[in-house]
Amino acid sequence: MQDQLNRHIHLIKTPKKIVSLVPSQTELLFDLGLETSIVGITKFCVHPIHFKKEKTIVGGTKSVQFDKIKALEPDIILCNKEENTEEMMLELEKIAPVHMSDIYTINDSLQLIQMYGNIFSVKEKANAIIENIKEKLEDFQAFINEKPILKTAYFIWKKPWMVAAKHTFIDEMLQLNKFENHYGHLVRYPEIKLSESKKETADLVLLSSEPFPFKQAHTDEMRTFYPNSKVMLVDGEAFSWYGSRLVNAFNFFKTLHQGPLKAIVSDSR
Length: 269
Fold this sequence. Notes:
Layout: E1 18-20, H1 23-31, E2 38-41, H2 51-54, E3 56-57, H3 66-72, E4 76-80, H4 86-92, E5 98-101, H5 106-119, H6 123-144, E6 150-157, E7 162-163, H7 169-176, E8 179-181, E9 204-208, H8 216-223, E10 230-234, H9 236-240, H10 246-258, H11 262-268
Parallel strand pairs: 1-2, 1-4, 2-3, 4-5, 6-8, 6-9, 9-10
Antiparallel strand pairs: 6-7
Helix pairs in contact: 5-6, 6-10
């Protein structure tokens, strides 16, 4: 079989011991009913919450303890092109087969869920999640259809300021919400120079709860650069976690549009 980088993965049988190095993929495994098969996770795998007490923490997403992983004797290690490094992958391949995901769109996410269904022999559960996501997506698309387009900046980091631009899963979710990316002329996660002498113009500025933990105080700071914009904190997991998290993400987006964005939408009409 192949992963999402079209690398060939050789598996003799259904893997029974899994190391997951991507938080959203760990959550997906749980929702696929594979809790007992997961033996190792990262310190950022916070869902479900009890995993941090019951599973072996092998490090972060960019740096892991290879000896710890080797001691777990995994049948497969699950990684992601964006979250994990190529150097890590090459070292991990010496321990067990490595499956790499590469997610930019919802379709990529659905493909990954299908892959996991096949790899771990949980096709029925995978198909159920896929159908649920498709239904929620269709419902949200109908909901958002008449909403106006809002020019939006999505910040993920401070010192330096960094945003989500084109060719990211976050941008896919922004477009789905009819949030035109203010930094759409850039790609990936560029550093941004902000200056009080040069005021930025956007309808909306979103400060993500992850990877940088933006707080309410940061919204006041951001208003010095975007004085005429609506600045607000948002759940970063809803915009950046793929997999089964998408089932809940669309409900979050609806709440966002029905609540905090009502005033700005009214002004934009």
